[in-house]
Write a structure and sequence with these properties.
The structure is a homodimer.
Chain A: E1 5-8, H1 20-35, E2 43-46, H2 48-56, H3 65-80, E3 83-84, E4 90-91, E5 93-99, E6 109-113, H4 119-127, H5 130-147, H6 153-166, H7 177-195, H8 203-217, H9 221-229, E7 238-244, E8 255-260, E9 272-277, H10 281-286, E10 292-293, H11 296-302, H12 309-312, H13 314-331, E11 335-342, E12 345-353, H14 358-370, H15 376-382, H16 385-391, E13 395-396, E14 404-407, E15 409-412, E16 415-421, H17 424-432, E17 437-441, H18 449-454, E18 457-460, H19 468-476, E19 480-482, E20 487-490, E21 495-498, E22 501-504, E23 508-512, E24 517-520, E25 525-526, H20 532-544, E26 548-552, H21 556-564, E27 570-574, H22 582-593, H23 597-621, E28 627-630, H24 644-654, H25 658-668, H26 680-685, H27 687-708, E29 714-718, H28 724-745, E30 752-757, H29 760-764, H30 766-769, E31 775-778, H31 780-788, H32 796-804, H33 821-835, E32 840-843, H34 851-860, E33 864-867, H35 872-886
Chain lengths: ~900, ~900
């Protein structure tokens, strides 16, 4: 016979913590506590299988269920020495849902089942408190009427409000026992009117009503939608927990409270929590009475003057503290628990893993390793890499007041505050004058880089998580709110508008890049504090990860920041960013305007020493570590002026007419620049550009090698390749240039030439491409754009709905679409290795800093991931977790990776 | 011992026609003719293996070669009764290259080897013509000096010119024997001066010099480049043909000529060709003397007054006509042959398959089937589908004079002539007034459709083979020259400029869409004449093809045209084209401007009856044949006005401010519209649009079914799908709408719902998508754009170079990139079938009309191809050829495909 009902806390306990699938999370932990000998009010759990059966059998219960419930209830009656429905001394029960994981939308709780006009008298007598009894009774009728019988909550509230009005009282506590009696009568009349049936007085009817309500709530639309979005199978079902009621509001020897086994904000190892004497659970959170600290240390931390439980109930506190130690030792995790003291007796109502801040997590796991509770590997697995992100940036003071005027995407974490400016030039000028500046643009382009550098934070009204603003801001580690669609920028008037509000140039706003909030005025921020725990845990992680972690960086600042965060090389140096410097852009534009190769070469000759200097400096900073340099990637029109003023300026300096500039702009215009004349296509049509870059790389490397005395190994990376022939042609030129430079300088150095894999065709033809490539670096930004046929700059308008409706689990530009785009990565890895078994494989798209994508990279066996400097610690941690889970922890990282 | 030398035409013949790989095309056919007993001047072929050996062994010949050449030469000497280098009666030889296939860049011919100061006297004596002998000698020294010894050709010409000046003569024919003696002396002095060596007098030295020159020319850069581009392996090598000289210029009983076994222009079965008495081969083509027709019928056709060979040399003509019949019977193909008559004896110097016009091909293969020379299957294989294209459109009168002012891409074939207009509205107005109009635009957009419809031809200055203009023009079967970059359109001045020329509105130009030429003024055109041969051959093809052929069409005109050309259904009805009608665009725009769903539904309600009418009409025309309707695909901004005037107009009608229109335009602007908010993404975010379309489809289908009494099977196609969930959501709505309409109308009909596979992710996840799709239609235009990361509208600027440099074999937008994008198609077919074995698979991209892509479609087993109406015959033929080659010819075509 199938066992449908699992008892706990009474005569016997059938369940265990590892039975969450069968009896739900709450039920499993209640059973576990009972097994540990902790005081849990006796009860039983109806399994999730009953729920599945219920829906598979036209909403019928298995026939054995009634008997098993009866037996479990009788066992409780025996244990408690009370009877359910006994008018003298009634046993009262609660009913709660309990799925495998906590799930919104479902029925939560019905308390005080078993009360009716008769048993309430027994409760009044045994408790010696008639008001308490009738208060409990009216709470029950209201709760049951609402969640089980579907009578509107506010209809009950109206009755209560009328009663208070008529009796001239304003607070519930002033309602008398007789008052509650009257209210109960009216409540029941309401139920009769609304449902056409009298309120059920029979305790067993009440119990089955409660059980049925939980099961039915499994299929309410909100729960169904939630499961759909989170891909929770409908046949998991929910369990139902039926448990003896205990009361913290039975006088001065009763109390109720919640506690964490450590401080969830700081992680400090002391007993953290709040309690109230003579109160119910809901009173602790309702805010009518001020909860008191559990411990003296907690009282001190809170700056409270109210006495701690340690002082008011020393005996009970000792028991509770004992429970705390037992729970931590048992679960080896910070616990969040609920307890009630009924007339001097402690009961535990719930325990679960405690939610805590990132800083607390670091402190806790570090402490727990020292305490011997967990080992280093477990510690590494315990830290959520996404949470780590918050530690690496300034954040808003959580206690500050905020006037939120708009919300965009949380494009780059951290908080920033400054005066708004609407052009990069103005932002730069004001920042130069010492002002804190927020750069506000409809969207940003590479021309805005200097303004972004100068700004404290960036706000755009358009663009997604991988728009130019978002990507560059993350790279710089600057807070960015992107795509705040409610804001419209008016460059002419130098204002931005949101609703009726107009924010003028120079006014102050605050951005929270971690939430996407835009706030009027200054909101105080707190600077990040990286604790010793952080370094310790990162060291444990580094010991375990297999993959190397590099950074995407091109400026000396970024490169140094990357080293500080533990980067082991540069995986992507975007050379185009070096061209936007005002001192150089003119030469770049001259090249674009040249009518022939000779003219282009002349302009490029001006760029050569600058570019060589860039590389020499980068090689020097990264001294001895590998540096991957990507040759020019964006379409040429990105370097041209677009605004009238800029066009006039440029024409004047270049000695051409604005007409000519506009014509060239027209010629270079592209319908879909993402799919246009860029990347190695420029190298094929204008070979002199890549030649100049190759020359600068090799000359710069020789210079740096001489200066530092360390081996410099440049990795030259060709972008946007789709075929072997393309790569071969360009590689041949790079090699020829290397040989030319080596001959001239009378020295040589090691170098390699590889390619981005960022176009589906390249992934599919990776076997051929690998014949010419010494390494592949997956450019998953573009691979996502082409693989999904979605422009990252345009997708924001529908991507939200796509994620909401569950078409994509996550934004595929933030977290790799493993099912689709991931296949291309896998195919390329497999085919690349078929041709060249030891080909070096890395990733340099935005996904290189995303934990779930990093797990994927470990799975397919990449050599390294490369990400924004500010995400390097996250990547280090995620790579370690991935290696531990994949069983590759501690495998030697290849030197060259 | 390896046989390096193959003799022919003398004592024995070693080679055969099927030995082209070993002895080259020319050598193989010479041997074949000798084997047939035809009079071929004796000679021998040095094999391609010698060439390979030569390059594999540091430019040394195999050691046995010299002896084998000597033996072959001696055999010729015996046969001819002459000796090579005999001063009395010298045997003279020619040396020619001969690779497997004809290849530019290589050395062609050296004639008259064996002449020197001694042997020339013998030639003078035996020929009885001293001038002939010294003329031959000087030709030899010049040719050998140029191609073997590398002395500049024009240096020889200068000597000859000086001689003529000094002697006061202007024509070569007036140079005397003594004159040639003097010229030869100076030629030899030139060679001595340039090469530092005397001109080789020894005949064997001359012979080996000639042979070596052929082998060396295999590796000259032009030949290497040509092979690279055409992917001809370098180790194929070339053969060398050494052949006895014969002379057509030995007096009135000698002659030379070229002939085709049938008329290569019309295909008529008569002996077509030209000859000249007492002349050399080069004289026939040099244009100094007018060649005469071979036959009387040819003379009549040419309107010539000169006597035919049939009359002047009846005996020889009889022999030649006999050869003609033998060759056709033997090769079963029209032959192009060269002959020489030396003193009354006929010699054949070459035969090969004759090049002919498309019309001639049809006539010839049809005749040959009737003559029993070939069977129907061979006939089908003989017609080049690409050539067929020329037959389906008007073409320029080949005899007309042309003033070509620019050249663009041959984007849609056929010729058209008309007055230029620069806006669609103006073009429509003028066409309405009865004018022939050419629409000239920088590029076209869907807003120009009515102007394109009204125009005779379309000219754009920007865009590639699959730009909007090109695709739409091909669909309409209208001539189009696209991307004529030299032309700049000036809409304001209403002129176009090319160089210094200014063409004003209303002036006449002519377009040749088959060559891309743009001509000033009117050039007369000829209308296509589809012969009975065409219908006959198409019937033979239809019997053999396995795949169905459908058309991409949405207008009644196109649908009727498609039926006329034999389409078996519509594979792609692009519903957006139906929205651009001026009567509807307003409602479309109202929908776009609506602020909520209710507003959108109100606007859509106006479109519903129109759209229903469209579909009803289409179903009626296609009566009983399958029609695939693609739901709305382009981004909404395509429907909005863009030019100032249009914006003002629209704002006025819609009762909004131009400011509002511009703001909405700004909101809808996309950086990469190709990768933006379009296709089913619109269906997900605005479900009401697809709902209206589904309603129109089902209501229209029921209407048409009632009217025609034939079963209508609509196929509803969802574009741009990337995941199963996406498709499922939209399919559920289509089904719901079908059921609603059926319930309302009290009737039902069969229908299916499928998807485009046009994004790499869709191809990779085809197994999942097939769970929801009843058919896949490969949208290879977008699949190419995303698979290669190339925008078809932007690729023109680099794609030319990509094809030229051999990175792509062909323009991947015209002919499917089988190696890359083809993999995605294969993967999708395979995975789709894994889920649903009988899933219907088709293609509706531009490639559906491209023969090489159609072969690919046959290989992967698609059910049908769909293409522009005007390409339907091409597709029918190509599908038949593919089936024959794949061995699937005549396999039952599925009824529903």
């Amino acid at each position: 016979m199938t066992k449908w009902v699992y008892s706990f806390g009474g005569e016997k306990t059938d369940g265990r913590a590892d039975m969450k699938n069968l009896i739900g999370g709450k039920g499993a932990n209640l059973a576990e506590m009972a097994n540990m000998g902790l005081p849990v009010p006796p009860g039983f759990t109806i399994t999730t299988e009953v729920c599945t059966y219920f829906y598979a059998n036209d909403r019928q219960y298995p026939k054995e269920l009634e008997q098993q419930v009866n037996e479990a209830l009788q066992s409780i009656e025996r244990f408690q020495g009370k009877k359910f429905g006994d008018p003298k001394d009634p046993l009262l029960m609660s009913v709660r849902s309990g799925a495998r994981i906590s799930m919104p939308g479902m029925m939560d709780t019905v308390l005080n089942l078993g009360l009716n006009d008769e048993t309430v008298k027994g409760l009044a007598e045994t408790s010696g408190d008639e008001r308490f009894a009738y208060d409990s009774y009216r709470r029950f009728v209201q709760m049951y009427g609402d969640v089980v019988l579907g009578v509107e909550h506010h209809d009950f509230e109206e009755i209560l409000d009328a009663h208070k009005r008529e009796n001239g009282i304003s607070l519930d506590v002033d309602v008398t026992a007789d008052g509650w009696k009257e209210v109960v009568k009216q409540y029941k009349a309401l139920v009769q009117k609304e449902t056409g049936e009298p309120f059920p007085d029979d305790p067993m009817t009440q119990l089955w009503g409660g059980i049925g309500a939980v099961f039915k709530s499994w299929m309410v639309p909100r729960a169904v939608t939630y499961r759909k979005i989170h891909e929770i199978p409908g046949d998991w079902g929910t369990a139902v927990n039926v448990q003896t009621m205990v009361y913290g509001n039975m006088g001065e020897t009763s109390a109720t409270g919640v506690a964490f086994t450590r401080d969830p904000s700081t992680g400090e190892n002391y007993f953290y929590g709040e309690y109230l004497i003579n109160a119910q659970g809901e009173d602790v959170v309702a805010g009518i009475r001020t909860p008191q600290a559990l411990t003296e240390i907690g009282k001190e931390r809170d700056g409270s003057t109210l006495p701690s439980m340690e002082v008011t109930m020393p005996e009970i506190f000792k028991q509770l503290d004992d429970v705390r130690h037992k729970l931590e030792k048992h679960f080896r995790e910070i616990q969040d628990l609920e307890f009630t003291v009924e007339r001097g007796k402690l009961y535990l109502l719930q325990t679960r893993t405690g939610k805590r801040t990132a800083a607390a997590t670091l402190k806790i796991v570090s402490d727990m390793v020292k305490e011997g509770l967990i080992n280093e590997e477990e510690a590494v697995l315990r830290v959520d890499p996404a949470q780590l992100d918050h530690l690496l940036h300034p954040r808003l003071d959580p206690n500050a007041k905020k006037d939120v005027i708009a919300k965009g995407l949380n494009a780059s974490p951290g908080a920033a505050c400054g005066a708004v400016y609407f052009s990069a030039d103005e932002a730069e000028a004001q920042a130069g004058a010492g002002k804190a500046v927020i750069l506000c643009r409809t969207e940003t382009s590479p021309e805005d880089i200097h303004g972004m550098h100068a700004a404290k934070g960036i706000l755009t009204s358009r663009g997604g998580m991988t728009s130019h603003a978002a990507v560059v801001a993350r790279g710089m580690g600057k807070p960015c709110v992107a795509g705040a669609g409610a804001i419209s920028m008016d460059y002419k008037q130098k204002v931005m508008r949101v609703g009726d509000k107009v924010i003028k140039e120079g006014e102050t706003i605050t951005l929270d890049g971690s939430t996407g909030e835009v706030m009027l005025g200054e909101v105080p921020t707190l600077n990040p504090e990286l604790s010793g725990d952080f370094a310790e845990i990162m060291a444990w992680a580094d010991k375990r990860r297999r993959m190397r972690v590099r950074a995407n960086a091109e400026t000396p600042t970024d490169a140094r920041q990357a080293l500080e965060f533990g980067a082991e090389g540069i995986g992507l140096c975007r050379t185009e960013h070096m061209f936007f410097d005002p001192a150089r852009i003119q030469a770049v534009r001259e090249m674009i305007f040249a009518s022939d190769e000779a003219g282009r070469r002349k302009a490029l000759a001006k760029l050569l020493p600058e570019q060589r200097g860039d590389f020499a400096q980068l090689f020097e900073i990264m001294s001895g570590l590998p540096v991957t340099i990507r040759l020019l990637d964006p379409p040429l029109h990105e370097f041209l002026p677009h605004e009238d003023k800029d066009i006039e300026n440029f024409a004047k300096i270049a000695g051409v007419t604005t007409e000519q500039v506009r014509r060239r702009l027209g010629e270079l215009h592209e319908f879909n620049p993402m799919l246009g004349h860029r990347g190695c296509r420029l190298g094929i049509t204008y070979p002199e550009i890549y030649e100049m870059q190759a020359q600068a790389i090799f000359e710069g490397a020789i210079e740096a090698q001489k200066k530092t005395g360390k081996t410099v190994v440049p990795e030259v990376m060709i972008p946007l390749v789709v075929s072997k022939k393309e790569l071969k042609m360009l590689k041949d030129r790079v090699i020829a240039m290397a040989e030319k430079v080596f001959a001239e300088k009378g020295t040589t150095l090691e170098y390699s030439v590889g390619t981005m894999i960022e176009i589906p065709r390249a992934a599919l033809c990776a076997d051929q491409i690998a014949e010419e490539a010494e390494f592949f670096s997956f450019g998953t930004n573009d691979l996502t754009q082409t693989g999904l046929g979605m422009s990252r700059d345009d997708a924001a308008v529908f991507l939200g709905e796509y994620v909401e409706k569950g078409i994509f689990e996550k934004d595929p530009f933030s977290s790799l679409d493993q099912e689709g785009v991931g296949q291309l990565v896998e195919i390329a890895c497999e085919r690349g290795r078929k041709t060249k078994a030891d080909i070096k494989l890395g990733i340099c798209g935005e996904h290189g800093g995303d934990p779930s994508s990093i797990h994927f990279c470990e799975k397919v066996g990449l050599s390294y991931v490369s990400c924004s400097p500010f995400r390097v610690p996250i990547a280090r941690l995620a790579a370690a977790q991935a290696a531990i889970k994949a069983g590759t922890a501690g495998q030697a990282k290849k030197k060259a990776a």
